[in-house]
Amino acid sequence: MKNKPNVQNVIIIAREAGDILMHHRGQVTAEYKGDDSPVTIADKNASDHIINSLKEFTPDIPVVSEEQDMKTNRKIVKESETYWMTDPLDGTKSYIEGYDGFGVHIALIHKGEPVMGVAFFPAQENCAGKLYYTGNNGKAYVQVGKTAPQRIKVSKNPGVIKTAMGWKDRPAIETGEIIRAVGGARLCVTAEGPANLAQFNSSFSYWDVAAGHAIIKAAGGGFYNAKTLEEIRYDKPDLVTPPAFGGAKNFVKKLFYKRPPSPSNPKAPPKR
User: Fold this and answer.
1) CB atoms closer than 10 angstroms to residue 42
2) CATH 3.30.540.10 region(s) of the chain?
3) Are 95 and 18 within 8 A, CB to CB?
4) Residue 36 pLDDT
5) Most buried pick, 9, 32, 182, 260, via CB within 10 A?
């Protein structure tokens, strides 16, 4: 994508949304949406700030948000070549229960692909905050508090499989270590290196994973359909991804690729 917006402006917006979440933390009660997922005044206030700030920053790029009308969201995805995909509070349950895994996610989608991502976790690192983002140079970075940003890369030949997954999930690979993480944070920790495989056993909304997808791509990995191993795209009207895995491409394919049967013997794998 040419003339991509400056990611530093998006980082400021994500940090400001994070401040809103921290301001309300411990003081909110949840309402429940039609799909039985929780929402709080913090979600709504952070969403309003992100949408208004992005519209001011890039008035020609529409904004999709979890807390926005779904009819509007679907129309944007269907009709727009480029749009923002935002989740003002990924991990609402963790937020309500006082855990630190919640985050602000903002991604830029162009022609169905994530080309920029910012994920900010304001309560992590003893509330100093942890930021993951794609740099203007196309590389991926992590920044803790006010320390200098550090470039991150996926692990391409790990010795031990370390899977980032949800608290109720069972690992696809039984051997190895498990790292529990909320939604799109799984892709971030896999991009950084504590995990080398991000596992999503079920469908996730676009806004949950798009920013993390951009970040893991910039770190040298990808986010792949668990059945086809094709890269996840963001151009379907249902606005959800299928079950998927994130990590280094060759590593994920080595773990999960199933060779097609030989034409001469459909029940047998092809000979090498």
Assistant:
1) 24
2) 7-152
3) no
4) 62
5) 182
User: In angstroms, rounded to a whole number, what is the distance separating the alpha carbons of residues 96 and 24?
Assistant: 10
14 burial level (CB within 10 Å; 0-12, 13-18, 19+): buried
Structure tokens at 239: 């606005």
CA atoms within 13 A on the CB side of 111: 2
Whole-angstrom Cα distance, residue 188 to residue 145? 16
The answer as to CATH 3.40.50.2300 being correct for domain 162-256 is no
DSSP 38-94: EE-HHHHHHHHHHHHHHHHH-TTS-EEETTS-HHHHHHHHHH-SEEEEEEEEE-HHH
Give the CATH superfamily of 7-152: Fructose-1,6-Bisphosphatase, subunit A, domain 1 (3.30.540.10)
Q: Which is it for strands 103-110 and 113-121: parallel, antiparallel or unpaired?
A: antiparallel
What residue ranges of the chain are covered by domains with CATH 3.40.190.80? 162-256
What does DSSP say about strands 162-165 and 177-180: parallel, antiparallel, or unpaired? parallel
Report the Cα 170 to chain-centroid distance in Å. 20
String of DSSP letters for 127-155: HT-EEEEE-TTS-EEEEETTSPPEEE---
Answer whether 0.85 is exceeded by the pTM.
yes
Q: Are strands 140-144 and 177-180 parallel, antiparallel or unpaired?
A: unpaired
- Tell me whether residue 111 is exposed, middle or buried, using C-beta atoms within 10 angstroms of its C-beta: 0 to 12, 13 to 18, 19 or more: exposed
